[in-house]
User: What shape does this take?
Amino acid sequence: MNVHDEMSDADVLRAAAGSLSKIPMPGAPDTAAIITTGRARRRRRMTGVMAGTAAVTVVVLGLSGAFAATSHQPSGATRHQPTHRGHAQLAAWTVTKLADGNISVRINQFKDPAGLQRTLRADGVRASVTFASQRNPACRPYPGGTPAPGSVPPSPLRPSTLLKQVFPQPYRQLGPPPGAGPAQMVKAGPPARPPSGNRTVIVIDPSALPRNAGVQLATNGAAASLRLPVVVYASPRCTGS
Amino acid sequence: MSNHQAEFSEFFQASWEPCLRAVVAVVGSPQLAEDQVAEAFTKAWMSWRTVSHHPAPRAWVVRTALNTGASWWRRRGRELPLAGHDVAAPGELASGLDATLLTAIWRLPRRQREVIALRIFLDLDTDTIARLMKIEAGTVRMHLSRGVAALRRELTPNETTEASR
Assistant: This one.
């Protein structure tokens, strides 16, 4: 008897669908978050178009002096004055300087990324922090600063030595356990609306960062959870200095 | 809430899970898929006037999510969502035959996974999948046939022995 007769294509697809359907899925983010992100991006796009149009107009009119005067903007609050020693606490996040010199970042809510970036800078960590749907496009990954991809999904996490040194947490906990096969993957992340108490902690070792590098902390596409932190090249446009 | 927004909201709520499952079937990781699908829905909202008139808007979202993932890979290298700081064994996602089948699905070539995901979760016919993936219908049938054959081998591991008797 031919076994193919026992299991049609439709049966195979049904079985595959059944197995895939049992995978626990993250819940849908709030529609409002998607809409707000989309609108913000549209606004940015429009602003860019308008700025581009204005710039072209200015050039065409030969008003180079006026252009130079209006396009120059300060780079922002780059001269940060440290306001804390050892411990700074805000409602949205907490930055703690540990006894071993490491910096612990505990994130409760995705608010005030600029403040977190300044606080980390004051503690000697150049950082790019974005809690929007898009990471800072000016940041370039540092060699070995992002987890290496696996060849077969679900991919194993293969953090580099640099990542393990710069971020003792989470990367030292993320490596596959001894004897693990290739099909390892990360567990589901925090829910879309993290309740209080379900906090994200990242530990940074500033001494492990190369001189020209900084860290990048960013949320995922729906701004619902934090991505794995990565190491990037420090630059004025990425990390502010 | 405008009609435009209400219409998108209804589409989003009804389509999130099937789109996410289709993308998970291709990329293998629920967390990566979540990022990509959220990004695709954001793009869908930004172009809602066009997407709402698309013959298969869910397929548009899935295709956009998969393209977004490929684009991220090219631009930034691999980035993964920060999760529970630990690693789950495959058995935590599924067990027994389900785990075997999931491993088999994720070992298929990507095109085969895409075709199977679009067929299973979006219930698309061969011609629609072909238009969406910009390939010939015959190629879709070939990917589907090869993918199903590989999965069947996992479901009936003694098939060769049986068939050779």
In short: The longest strand of chain A covers residues 213-218.
